[in-house]
Amino acid sequence: MNTVLSRAALAVCLAAGLAAPALAQNLAIVNGKPVPMARLKALEQQVARSGRPLDDALRQQLREEAILREIFMQEADKRGLRNSPEVKAQLELATQTILIRELFADYQRTHPVTEADLKAEYDRLTATAGQEYHARHILVGSEDEAKAVLAELAKGARFEDLAKQRSKDPGSGANGGDLGWATADAFVPEFSQAMAKLGKGEVSAAPVKSAFGWHVIRVDDVRPAQLPALDEIKPQLQQQIQQRRLAEYQEALRSRAKVQ
């Protein structure tokens, strides 16, 4: 009898010992079916990717979500929904979305943007940045008014004084028509095209019409466009390079594919 009891006790102990590792691998047992701990880890990874901090309260919420998902999945399987053609099609689309996302993420991991890449991109932008103009203008309501301004300038009137007296642009007018440094594309096309034809110190020979009125323009100085320092725009450059490379990768895959 003692032998039988000892064997039974040993069996219980062995069963408990074997069950412990299994429980450690599972988040819970729902209706006799284990919920793998990997599901909780996957939910935690989703949250981490979104940038939210993981604390104990959130982990507990995710644990409950994983359990609820299993409960709902079991009910869906009882109803045979997994075999529905509509569900199968949606599952296929979801699988494609996940795999494509991971494909692109893997490409970016294996093709990191280096410091040399960032420097080369910065140098390219610097070389193609064009010019900046330090311009002034006097904005009036009619062509005749603009021609009168030009006539006064020809007689020796100071541009800055006329801007303060005549300009309808309150922002620049109070500052002698000063528009500061800007690239040509910062202005409306009619203005920028006329401004770009002027050299340093030159005034537009004729009034320039835009949607705002009539402009008399003077260019005080011209210089190569000034970009922010490389360290200031590294994140933006990195994103631009990654997006461009990813687009090129997608185009390369498409061009190599045999589509009939």
From TrEMBL:
GO terms for molecular function: peptidyl-prolyl cis-trans isomerase activity. It holds the Pfam family Rotamase. It catalyses: [protein]-peptidylproline (omega=180) = [protein]-peptidylproline (omega=0). The keyword Oxidoreductase does not apply. Residues 1-24 form the signal peptide. Keywords: Isomerase, Rotamase, Signal. Residues 130-221 form the PpiC domain. PROSITE patterns: PPIC_PPIASE_1, PPIC_PPIASE_2. This is peptidylprolyl isomerase. It comes from Tepidimonas thermarum. The lineage of its organism: Bacteria, Pseudomonadati, Pseudomonadota, Betaproteobacteria, Burkholderiales.
